[in-house]
Design brief:
Elements lengths: L2 H31 L3 H39 L5 H29 L11 H31 L3
Helix pairs in contact: 1-2, 1-4, 2-3, 3-4
Length: 154
């Protein structure tokens, strides 16, 4: 009967993980599209710095707790298993998009300064937002799966 407490911990970590994309969906995505290059560059530098410092703890906690939920639900033959698998798959997809898209683009943007940046900087911004939108879909799917497993158990 470990599924309940592990599900609770997994939901806490998943909520923290999904909060950044939710904030981008609600406000920051459109706000960043309306920024001039210097303001956008400064914002990306600060967010990337904080995510590298604090984001790993949240991501590892989410990955570990969700994988643990999959394992415990499997061994307990709990109805939460398919929801937990989908939640874990959403995390893996998110991390894949992040590693293939957002992290390399962040590395490029981190070489810019508010005074020196490429003329076509919007192209990199738009690419970053495109990858991030894929991540939003993956994370929301996984998060909603966990919630659905709680509200609509099989």
């Amino acid at each position: 009967m470990l599924t309940g407490p592990i599900l609770f911990i997994s939901l806490i970590f998943y909520t923290a993980t999904v909060s950044q994309p939710l904030f981008y969906l609600i406000a920051l995505g459109n706000a960043s599209r309306n920024m001039h290059a210097p303001a956008y560059i400064e914002m990306r530098h600060r967010i990337d710095e904080q995510m590298r410092r604090n984001g790993a703890v949240v991501y590892y906690g989410t990955l570990f707790s969700t994988l643990l939920l999959v394992a415990v639900a499997f061994f307990e033959k709990n109805s939460m298993l398919p929801f937990a698998i989908l939640a874990f798959a959403g995390l893996i997809a998110d991390i894949s998009f992040m590693k293939r898209g957002n992290i390399p683009i962040n590395a490029i943007i981190n070489t810019w300064t508010p005074e020196q940046y490429p003329v076509d900087w919007e192209r990199q911004r738009d690419q970053w937002l495109k990858y991030f939108s894929y991540r939003q879909i993956a994370l929301f799917t996984g998060f909603l799966s966990l919630l659905a497993g709680v509200v609509f158990p099989l």
